[in-house]
Automatic annotation (TrEMBL):
GO process terms (BP): proteolysis
Cofactor dependency: Zn(2+)
Lineage, top ranks: Eukaryota, Metazoa, Ecdysozoa, Arthropoda, Hexapoda
Active site: 375
Major subcellular site: secreted
Alphabetized GO MF terms: metallocarboxypeptidase activity; zinc ion binding
Subcellular location(s) per record: Secreted
GO cellular component: extracellular space
Record organism: Anopheles minimus
Stated name of the protein: Zinc carboxypeptidase A 1
Residue span(s) of domain Peptidase M14: 117-409
UniProtKB keywords: Carboxypeptidase, Disulfide bond, Hydrolase, Metal-binding, Metalloprotease, Protease, Secreted, Signal, Zinc
Length: 415
């Protein structure tokens, strides 16, 4: 009998398709600064026993900031903890559900994307198929694998001529980071349609490889069930579903900034490459790695431009001075567009330690010379739930940053 109940529970956890959409009325989001080992250990214990709390970043070290979603029934408890630990906190969001409600405009279904809203996996895939069909001489689509729930894993290549240096972009590996795939699709559309000479130069003289949705099962789940979901959707045990795919790559796996606890948002998996999505991306990248000069991983939020390596105790890459020089130029071009300020530098130094990430894997295993993580808007006012009216401005400043990035990389001899 117990086994049957466990199977039913597992099926309910894994499906999500018919589940009711979670609401977060009157939930607050606080930014918390971790300064002492006692604070760190207490927050780590709280993450393992959340009882309604949700951590947007895992507490992995001192001298880091993270955001915690606090449900109404925990307001008094949270105040007690912050007082007892002398935690420095800042209220980021007063009512999280209102931010979610304001994230997307009311709309009717559209035949194509117009980047005034966030779209479903099916809508994005339909657009990808459409733009390839409309531009068959320069675009080619491929299915490089299948997700745990049976969705296609799709990639698009843009190439005007043979022999171009390659640029690889992957987005939406974390399910709730909708702005990442929205920006990636907008960029491809610009590369295909723009009359701006600088953009045309990028399109014609570089080969572009896009994975718009690296985690389609997770993205679908954020649309139907839980806007805060981060991981994949493969069950780990009877109670915990999903692995953080950006901790699951087989390079310095579980070497800092990742969790071995299956219900944690930063759970690295039972093994490296335990997820079909990460294994398939790695296999796909291996087929093109020799052509890739630049690799970008699109994430949100915080407005960071991060360089490898992220794992614990990692040395800086031998070309770190060049990495930081390119980052400086890129951040300046982003800021010049709309005033958006990016912090840049080594990911473990300016943000926090991570291991098993895509960038570390591509640089560490395949020797990709220029690997960067973009953490898009904003700095906490809306967090992962960036309003749709910021999609195009975010994409525009990102494109200007990439134009400057590639120009500097060319000056330094990387492309």
């Amino acid at each position: 009998m117990w086994f049957k109940v466990a199977l039913l529970l597992l099926a309910a956890l894994a499906s999500g398709g018919s589940a009711e959409q979670a609401r977060f009325d009157n939930y607050r989001v606080y930014e918390v600064s971790i300064e002492t080992e006692r604070q760190l250990q207490t927050l780590q214990h709280l993450e393992l026993n959340p009882d309604g709390y949700n951590f947007w970043e895992s507490p992995v070290q001192t001298n880091m900031r993270l955001s915690i979603v606090v449900p109404p029934h925990k307001f008094a408890h949270f105040e007690e903890i912050t007082t007892a630990l002398a935690l420095k906190t800042r209220l980021q969001i007063e009512d999280f559900q209102k931010v979610i409600d304001n994230e997307r405009p009311k709309r009717s279904p559209r035949a194509t994307l117009d980047w005034t809203d966030y779209y479903t996996v099916e809508e994005i895939y339909a657009w990808m198929d459409q733009i390839v069909a409309q531009n068959p001489t320069i675009l080619s689509g491929s299915v490089y694998g299948t997700s745990f729930e049976g969705r296609d894993l799709k990639a698009i290549k843009l190439s005007h001529k043979a022999g171009n240096p390659g640029i690889f972009i992957e987005a939406n590996i974390h399910a709730r980071e909708w702005i990442s795939s929205a920006t990636a699709t907008w960029l491809l559309n610009e590369l295909v349609t723009s009359t701006n000479p600088a953009v045309q130069d990028l399109a014609q003289n570089y080969d572009w490889y896009f994975i718009m949705i690296a985690n389609p099962d997770g993205l679908a789940y954020t649309k139907t069930t839980n806007r805060q979901w981060r991981k994949t959707r493969q069950p780990v045990n009877d109670l915990c579903v999903g692995t953080d795919p950006n901790r699951n790559f087989d390079y310095m796996w579980m070497n800092g900034g990742a969790s071995s606890v299956p219900c944690s948002d930063t759970f690295a998996g039972l093994t490296a490459f335990s997820e079909p999505e990460t294994r398939a991306m790695a296999d796909y990248y291996a087929t093109i790695a020799n052509n890739i000069n630049i690799q970008f991983s699109f994430h949100s939020y915080g407005q960071y431009l991060l360089t490898p390596f992220g794992y614990s105790g990692a040395p800086l890459p031998s070309n770190d001075a060049d990495l930081q020089r390119i980052a400086t130029v890129t951040a300046a071009a982003i800021q010049a567009t709309y005033g958006t300020r990016y912090t840049y530098g080594n990911s473990a130094s300016v943000l926090y330690t991570t291991s098993g990430s895509t960038v570390d894997y591509f640089v560490g295993v395949h020797g990709t010379r220029l690997g960067y993580t973009f953490e898009f808007r904003d700095t906490g006012a809306t967090g992962f739930v960036l309003p749709a009216n910021q999609i195009i401005p975010n994409a525009e400043e990102t494109l200007n940053g990439i134009i400057a990035f590639v120009a500097e990389a060319k000056t330094l001899g990387y492309v």
